[in-house]
Specification:
With 220 residues, the chain is α+β, with helices and mostly antiparallel strands. The chain is built from three helices and twelve strands, in the order αααββββββββββββ.
């Protein structure tokens, strides 16, 4: 058997092993060593395998093994960090959080909400609408600094009356020097429980469903 034919067998076996998945890493290593020994036993006496070739192949095997061990370690650390996040997030149950959303809940004459500004603005306007899309209240808040703003509405309407308790929608317009600024509306809700899924740690809110912990802008 020639060196080239054994090398071709080695390459084919390695490719086939890769297709079986990471669960067979140990089997792939054993197969590699077996094929390497077979390759050395069947090498051409007139054209023996160079020592540097053996060293290179062993180094490649060591590299693959090192990467696999590193991946295993990183996966373990990731799982441990996620579990730690879930335990820490349990302390948020019962807390009020601001997360991206455009609804507010008016109860007993108060509705809390928020706005996230990427930069300072010289004019911020909030428009509140009812379930039918009718404008209930327009508030010009003037200049505001950059960052997360925690705001509230006292339930008063543009006509001076008091709005009924319930859920309302709101939108914002922000500008600086006449140029529009992309502001993010934030809804306030209560954390009922904590869970985790493929997206990571999730907070299950009273009225708004599940939101990712990473999307929360403020906790109170």
């Amino acid at each position: 058997m020639s060196v080239s034919s054994v090398q071709n067998q080695t390459g084919s076996a390695t490719a086939a092993g890769a297709l079986t998945g990471a669960s067979s890493v140990q089997a792939m290593q054993n197969q590699f060593l077996t094929l390497l020994v077979t390759q050395m036993q069947n090498q051409d006496p007139l054209n023996p395998m160079d020592n540097s070739q053996i060293t290179t192949q062993l180094a490649q095997l060591s590299t693959v093994n090192g990467i696999d061990n590193l991946n295993t370690t990183m996966n373990s650390l990731s799982a441990a960090m996620l579990s730690s996040q879930v335990l820490q997030s349990a302390g948020l149950i019962g807390k009020q959080v601001l997360s991206p959303g455009s609804s507010m809940n008016l109860q007993n004459g108060v509705a809390s909400y928020g706005v996230d500004l990427p930069q300072a603005v010289d004019n911020l306007t909030v428009t509140i609408t009812d379930s039918a899309g009718n404008t209930v209240k327009t508030m010009n808040l003037g200049a505001e600094n950059a960052g997360t703003l925690s705001l509230s509405w006292d339930g008063s309407t543009n006509s001076g009356a008091k709005a009924a308790n319930g859920t309302y929608q709101f939108s914002v317009k922000a500008s600086q020097g006449g140029s529009s600024v992309a502001a993010t509306t934030l809804m306030q809700d209560t954390v009922n429980s904590v869970s985790q899924n493929a997206q990571g740690v999730m907070l299950n809110l009273s009225n708004s469903g599940a939101v990712a912990l990473s999307s929360v802008k403020q906790i109170s």
